[in-house]
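Q: Structure tokens for this one, please.
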Amino acid sequence: MARRPTPLPTALEPAFTTAQARLVGVRPDRLRAGDLLTPTSGVRSRRSDDITHVSTAHAYALVLPRPFAFSHETAARLFGLPVPRPWKAGQPLHVMRPTGTPLVVRAGITSHRGLERRYTEFARALPVTDPLETWADLAGTLAEDDVLAVADALLAQGLARPKDLERAAADRRTKGCGALRRCAAAARPGAASPWESKARHTFITWGLPEPELNVDVRSSDGRWLARPDFLWRARRVVGEYDGDQHRTDRAQWQYERERRARLEDAGFTYVEMTSLSLTSPRHRDALRERLTRLLLG
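A: Here is the predicted structure, written as tokens:
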């Protein structure tokens, strides 16, 4: 029967450097025990702890050369901003350093320069490019509808004002600056999810009128009817995104059916959308044809 590893000193944090461990008397063979992980060279963490983007960034931060800040998608995740790809263990972290300093050459790191031109702050106790800088940097790597989703989230979370987005976009002359300016003009605080932002971007691209977002709809006698994702008031058209929970949750499904009936009884046209409405060419074309007919016909 294998012997259990000797308990680590309580002075060590969940992630620690091998140098820190040696200072408190941990032997080299203990650092090779099976209850420890090696997030990156020179760092150990306890295997029992959850591996998240936050814990991974903290582990790397122990050995990154100063000054540095996490940037791009890594900074966005630390701020809780929507990025299109879910985080997975082993996914590279984005790190930015000042121009003229060596890039970080380390497995699991994507390096960038230009930190001297960025405002920085702390998120989750880690140095990051500030929310506006992060958004502007993402325009060089993400699709335009994803950039709009981040802009909407910045407004919704109170991390930026519309004029802040416009100023940040105007200041950039790098890849994606055109998308930044368009997204700064199109950003709205009312979007409740990245999907709603992407859908609105699609509507704009199709040349459709811009909908109101998540506003109360009332009947002619003042009764509350619903709070739809999208409302084209002048045309009495509402649009709703039905995610997977609408199919798997019976109570949610019933609520949606009753809401639809209320709206249709009041004379609104109800347009139901799913994830396929934007991703499947056939469903996308059908949605475009229907909305064009309802809103521009």
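A few notes: The chain is about 40% helix and 15% strand. The CA atoms of residues 82 and 150 lie 6 Å apart.
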